[in-house]
Amino acid sequence: MPNTSIGTTAKPQQGTVPRSVAGLRHILARRMAALLGMALATAAISAACGERQRQTDNLHHIQQQRSGAYIIFLLSDSGVIKRGTTTLTLEFRNAATHELAQVGNVQATALMPLGTSTVSAGASVMVIGIPGRYKLTADFARAGKWDLNLIFDKNQHVQMKIDVP
After folding, report:
1. C-alpha distances in angstroms, 22 versus 15, 16, 28, 162?
2. Environment class of residue 12 by beta-carbon count within 10 Å: exposed (0-12), middle (13-18) or buried (19+)?
3. Largest Cα–Cα distance in the chain?
4. What are the pLDDT digits (tens) for 3-57?
5. Span 80-128, pLDDT tens digits
6. E-assigned strands of the chain?
7. For the purposes of burial, counting CB atoms within 10 Å of the CB of 78, is it exposed (0-12), middle (13-18) or buried (19 or more)?
C-alpha cells in the first residue's frame, strides 16, 4: 500500500529532474534576457542599415566606377544630368565593405572634347557633412559626351564618361 502521509514527497520518475518554481523562474528570466538582447541587437543593425538606405533613397544612380579600394557613385535627384548648372552627388564607398568612405579632398574637372579644343563645365566639389558624400556642381552648357575627372585620396584618379541630354 502506498504511503499517503502528509509531508512526504514522491520520488521523481526515472530520467526526470525535479525543479523548484524559483529555479524555473530563474531559467525563464535568463532566457528572456537573452532573447531581449538578441532583439535589441537585431533592431540596432536594422536601424543602421535603414539609416544608410534613407540617406540615398531620394537619390538616383547615374553610374559608378571603381578606383583602387573605392567604388565611386554618381547620383542625382532625377537620375539624369541636366544641361546648365547642375548639382550632383558623389558617393565614395569602400569596395570591400560597401561602407561610405571619407577620401579627403576631392577635385573635379568636367571637359567636353570639341575637335581640337575642349569646353570646361567649371566643376567644383564640396563636402556635405556625411563622411564619404560630396556635392558636385558643374555648368554643362552643351548637350553631349563629357569626361568627368576626379582626383581624391592621395592622388587617385577616376574618369567617368557622362552623357548630358
Report:
1. 21, 17, 10, 70
2. exposed
3. 115
4. 555 555 556 566 556 567 677 677 777 776 766 555 555 454 444 444 444 455 6
5. 999 999 999 999 999 999 999 999 999 999 999 998 999 999 999 999 9
6. 60-67, 70-76, 84-94, 107-114, 117-120, 124-127, 133-140, 144-152, 156-164
7. exposed
